[in-house]
Amino acid sequence: MPTPKLFDVHTHTQFIAFRDDAALVIERAFQQGVWLVNVGTQKNTSEDAVKIAERYAEGVYATVGLHPIHIEKSYHDSQELGVPSLSSFSNSRELENKRSGGFTSREEKFDYEYYKKLASHSKVVAIGECGLDYYRLGPDTREKQEKAFIQQIELAHELKKPLMIHCRNAFTDLIKTLDSKFQILNSPPGIVHFFSGTKEEARKLLDMGFSFSFGGVITFARDYNEAVKHIPLERILLETDAPYVAPVPYRGKRNESAYIVEIAKKIAELKKLSFEEIAAKTTDNARNLFEI
Description:
The protein is α/β, with parallel strands linked by helices. The chain has helices spanning 22-31, 43-54, 92-101, 112-119, 141-159, 171-180, 199-208, 225-230, 260-271, 275-290; strands at residues 6-11, 34-39, 60-64, 75-76, 103-104, 124-133, 163-168, 190-193, 211-214, 236-238.
């Protein structure tokens, strides 16, 4: 397979949104010269990310981890839960009802030994997505999320793999937790995906060694322009977070890795650099970080 032209560091073709055509979606990415990392969010989606990566000699990789939203039972949309969960539905009508109404996230405690074994696979390039998400707070959410996040920081340290970090409405606590564990962060420590923090929060994370990935939202919202301009190109990566947040001109459609081209174009515009330079540098950044 030719070397990649672009690298989608955060996608989810193992999610149920791609249950009928994941292989075709990956093939379309390859046709655009895109390599990709399927990111795990709990046990079943982490397992599936590894299974898909195993089908390809190169070009498709995986992360494994427990997303903070899955620390306790809470609403989550129907696009996520992976194919193994289909067996939990007694008939197609029940499944369709769940698709239209959303799922309740299965509560999961972080099982260190389970994830350690899964993360030891040669195609697993990072731990996560893990982190903090205060968008919907239960009574014990902060404490539970912090405990699971610290466990995954420790696992990343033990296995010498970068973190894939998710953070929503929680950057103050995220930075505080990372700072408390700074001595065991790897070098480089990992990626803050879909970064939505302030310039000052970006500075603190840059000082810790983190990189940042940006997705489709930057093609239709200006909120992220200053962050993209401020963060050095050597710390920027591209992501789709597919099936979510498709870029212009695909807004409203299911997102996929082939659309990463549009995100690279927008980064080039904001950085006042050529598309080719953005594509080459962000791809090198990803391959160096993941040691691919």
